[in-house]
Amino acid sequence: MFLEGIGQRGFYFIGIGGVSMSALARLLHGRGYSVRGSDMREGNFTELLRREGIPVRIGEEEEITEDAVVYTGAISPDHPQILQAKRENKRLISRPELLGKIADEFPHVVSVAGCHGKTTTSSMLAHIFLESGRPFTCHIGGEDLKLGNFYSSGGEYFLTEACEFQRSFLSIKSEIAIILNTDLDHTDCYRDEDELFEAYTAFSKLAEKCVVNADDRRARTLPHELSFGLFGGDIRAEKLRSFSERYAFTVSERGIPLVRIKLNCVGKVTVYDALAAFSAARLLGFSAEEIKRGLEKYSGVGRRFERVGNLKGAPVICDYAHHPREIAAAIETAKKICPGTVRLVFQPHTYTRTRDFLGEFVKVLSSAEAPAIIYKTYAAREEFDPAGSACALVSRIPDAVYVQSPDQLKERLLQIVQKDDLILCLGAGDIFFIARSILDQ
Questions:
Q1: What is the pTM of this model?
Q2: Nearest CA to 121 among 301, 249, 267, 332?
Q3: What is the mean pLDDT of residues 190-198?
Q4: What CATH number has the domain bearing residue 168?
């Protein structure tokens, strides 16, 4: 097998603290492999890894003695440990390659792709399996509030997110591939919608069966076994009712009502994720009642409309939304549950995304009830680009306020927030940790 052939002296992870990398490290460690790694900073996952017996070094000067080195697309080719691995002819394995090879070792693989909803749908599927008692292993690109980013009870089924960034999902061959949506993103990798859709098409061809969103104009054109949606598809949500933005609905399959489900997570977008998980589970032979039990046990994922505390009596909610469509959905949900004013804090994620979707960002952020607070851009892997900076965004939004430090953000919020307001912090960067630090103070 692939892993046995290359990991005889262990695996070393560069960037081991990332959500996906730490999950893969935990998976290999659980299988008995020697695993350790490094990262540039401490975080929730570095502590978790150490508690589970996986050594983690902060910094990039550690000598690598393992014969296999795993890295992510965010790691520069001239990273000191990459250069060392090349000098010593070690096996360099990208994160997508490792994920694909791990998936190959499972009899059944379910992968979840799409610009939005991958983590929620993957977590929902995991809870369906958990409640049914079937053995499975899951690799989640976030922290499920119960299961974390990795869980394993057996080697029969593998559930994983399949990310479109740099076409990494093309390393995964699936029994069932779920395509949640095909919205344009990662414009640093894709020229336009057509090029991105070509990648989704190639991904779908690697699967035996596909589940697609019938309400997505491109996804529904792909060959599929089942489709889902609110307005079309084989699996539909009907008779929707909202209880403080937690939705209940009847699931019908090809026109036949099957079961009534009440979700324990907020937001209308989660109905789509539930329908996607429902569809895949049906193809795997689950009964409607089994699926219902799993979906109703799911309670959410960290940083997905997560309430993290209160400031001056106002709830503070953090969400990973960093694409205009995700931001719009988060604002809509917040407005429905807030008796006062939604105070929006947004941190742009990467300069290319901000630059290439500038018009859409301006439109959606301008729809906020009160002037948006824009935090400095989280650059991630990119060099500064003034055209995609937070300042470029602020200059186009009436009355928007720019802040560039936790202290400035705290001062601004304390000036404006009232008891009945809701503070909504959006972004995929470090805004979550900044919000938490302000609350800790």
A1: 0.93
A2: 301
A3: 94
A4: 3.40.1190.10
